[in-house]
Amino acid sequence: MNSAIAKSRIHELSALLHTYNQEYYMLDTPSVSDFEFDMLLEELISLEKSHPEFMLPDSPSQRVGGTITKNFPTVTHNYPMLSLGNTYSKEELSEFDRRLKEFSQDEIEYVCELKYDGAAISLTYENGILTKGVTRGDGVRGDDVTANVKTIHSIPLKLHGNFLNEFEIRGEIIMPHSSFERLNNERIARGEEPFANPRNAASGSLKLQDASMVAKRKLDCFLYFLLSDNLPFKTHSESIINTKKWGFKAPEQLKLCKGIEEVWEFILQWDTARHNLPYDIDGVVIKVNSYEIQKTAGFTAKSPRWAIAYKFKAERVATKLINLSFQLGRTGIVTPVANLEPVQLAGTVVKRATLHNADVIASLDLHHNDTVFVEKGGEIIPKIVGVDLEKRDALEVPYKFIENCPECGTKLNRKEGESAFMCPNENNCPPQIKGKLEHFISRKAMNVDSLGEGKVEVLFDKKLVTNVADFYNLTYESLIGLEKIIPALDEKPERRISFREKTVENILKALDESKKIPFNRVLFALGIKNVGETIASKIARHFGNIDKIMQAQVFDFVEIEDVGEQIAYSVIDFFLDLNNIVIINRLKSAGLQMEVVENESDKLSENLLGKSFVVSGVFSISRDEIKNMITAHGGKFTGSVSSKTDYLLAGDNMGPEKRKKAENLKVLIISEDEFYEMIK
Ligand code: IVH
Asked: CA-CA distance, 237 to 234, in Å (whole number)?
């Protein structure tokens, strides 16, 4: 295709896809099928790849993300991003109204909006094109997350109508409940920690390095605050009406109120109705409508005097405590759970509340048959916040924490200074064995992802795998046809786990592939207490193979950066257990990597041979990549500057203390570019 045709087709496709996006996301009236849309988008992406010079700054291809941002640049806000004062009662609200009346003779007109519970964002538009998206940060400076923001469909890349040439618009990026649930289910299935609430999920998503991952998170955005040096509008509501015409998604439940009584009605209405919204709100924002009054009222150091937030109280109900149950987690920690008489709270029926640990039970002084107060704030799991003492019978006795493991009966212990009770029977207690097996096959360890949680459970129940070495004895015949039905529990439906031909082939293939996984990950996969991914890598690199680790003493371990006595004893204890030695020998015979293998990229040159480096600050690539480069060129990487350090590799924002120490010890301070010169 010649250039002129490519250019015109890129323009044509961009315009078409903009229209289809608008129809789908803003108007809810799609005129083409998803398939047709995807085909056009694919065509555009491929044309843009071969003719990047014609890619439009508002290209719809940016919605799917293709940008990787290693470090988000810090940007100073043109107008500081202030917060709002909070109120919790009608009295405080009336006080706010009374103060404002000093600036106006008449009843004040307010705009009430919902207070979206997400991550604040400031967007800049120049000549109708989105040019920047910056997080709130500390209010003065935020992170430039433009590429990520561009993947959010409700944020227009290009405006239409009679827009202002230059302005900023602020709003809240939120994660709707549907996206949140899907994301957390996926995270749980991958063995990752779920997000505590949609707010954390939204702000976490904005900081993802890969914009295409952000696109998958299905975020949404409401824009509620227009800023420009010369706003042509007289009121906030007029601004909102116009921003809608330009293509923004403005607050949907916006109400113009004459006086504080009408504001109060709006608040009462939404304190109840919020539970039916498809996203979280945590209050109502009340803004003076007239820009003139806003200007006279002005700002305090932290917030505008012309706006305030009314925060909803976390909903609280009283219910009867049926009993406590104690759950053993996969890491051996026992968590107490309160079983409650089912009660309606914040839109859901609550039957259980976590109590975290023995200290919480003690501080609440929970007695049998107590009536307890349960609260649900921004978090998903409700908590007990107190006991209704008036309802307690004087004869009732306090609850005690159990003394033995609820699964295997072993006496629980509690380390000094720690609040958790643990079951010490880590090699024979079923949930702990399953936990170890799941950890072994997890993505960051041996990466046998075809063996998800449910399947490991089946293998354990059928006694086919009772320790990690047993995985490598599995055969096609032993696996094919295995099946288990996991009954429905609470909201989760019944699940059938079955080992069919394709699944079995995939499992065996992945197990075979795992034999190539480098030694540092094998060491991590063993699940030695206190030995995470990074520590496992450091130990592996330091000793070189499993035999040396097995023979090492405490003083050998503490030589390693970030390794202290606690880790040293964990590793030594692990290898003192004969069961573990047998497992290691079986894994060795199965062919797993038990020593560090110097591969090609490990030995790029000997330019840095014998030189020791300390790395500090932010670089154009990640610190881990820098460290790998140092070792790949024969150098050594250490944690702190000493007289033995040869170079301090200084990135942006390096701590002044490190620099001072290096200068005092006459250690050479080099930049990232100078470092690249050395390894050229
Ligand atoms: S107006 C200068 N309107 O609440 C005032 N803020 O606690 C600009 N928020 O930082 C803010 N919904 O992140 C405004 N409808 C709404 C809002 C809202 C949520 C957030 C915003 C702000 C925080 C203040």
From this structure: 9
